[in-house]
Design a protein that fits this description.
alpha/beta, four-stranded mixed β-sheet, about 10% strand, 7 helices, two-stranded parallel ribbon, about 230 residues
């Protein structure tokens, strides 16, 4: 036996060394795989956590005007103006949403005002504030701070304003829609007569013919003759 071991000792030692090397390589690779799996798992967990945080974010909006329950409401991120209005009890019977973009995404501290039909009509009649052009070409926004309003781009608004100014310079003054300043550009029409025309429109409705302007207090035949070629309905 001893003779056998001595004779094949170098082979036995070689075999043992190879076995140890193989075992070492196996253990090393196994540790690396475990480490890599752990890193991947942690990475996925972190991503999922971030996604959950984004989805759980909320915004606060202030809903006022023609809704059944005005107030400040908290909604999930990604909700729309219509969702805020519904949370505020929905639209009241006299609400007019022509100037609102109901599909607009909510932002934190958003200020939403729903106007009544009367408010829109009065604003369009008096036009005391700068009108904001909308998709319908009719809608208005009395409060320019209203975050839910439909607003055109600044360049488009500038272009529109410029065109409107040119049209007013080259066209007649509408006695049914002109404001105080526009009416005062007519010969013989001062501040008091301009206000009288506006008051007449509000109380009696629009003029049917340009001669009806003589029904306004202070405007007789003499004044009418001066302005009749410069006015229209």
């Amino acid at each position: 036996m001893i003779y056998f071991i001595r004779k094949y000792l170098k082979y036995i030692l070689t075999f043992i060394c190879c076995a140890l090397i193989f075992v070492g390589i196996y253990i090393y690779n196994g540790n690396n795989n475990v480490s890599t799996s752990s890193v991947k798992k942690l990475s996925v967990t972190k991503k999922d956590s971030a996604t959950n945080q984004d989805s759980s974010k909320t915004v606060f909006v202030d809903v006022k005007g023609a809704v059944n329950a005005p107030g400040v409401y908290e909604l999930d991120n990604g909700k729309r103006v219509i969702d805020a209005i519904n949370l505020a009890g929905g639209l009241s019977d006299n609400a007019n949403t022509i100037n609102l973009n109901l599909s607009k995404k909510l932002t934190d501290e958003m200020y939403i005002v729903v106007y009544t039909k009367n408010e829109i009509a009065e604003y369009k009649k008096n036009n005391n504030a700068k009108e904001i052009s909308c998709a319908s070409n009719e809608c208005v926004c009395p409060d320019t701070n209203n975050s839910a309003c439909i607003k055109s781009s600044s360049s488009k608004s500038s272009s529109s304003s410029s065109n409107n100014s040119n049209e007013k310079t080259n066209s007649k003054v509408s006695i049914n829609s002109a404001n105080q300043e526009e009416l005062m550009t007519l010969s013989g029409i001062g501040e008091s007569k301009a206000n009288a025309i506006i008051s007449y429109r509000q109380e009696n409705g629009e003029f049917k013919t340009i001669e009806d302007i003589k029904n306004v207090s202070g405007i007789g035949d003499a004044v009418y003759e001066k302005i009749k070629n410069n006015i229209t309905l």
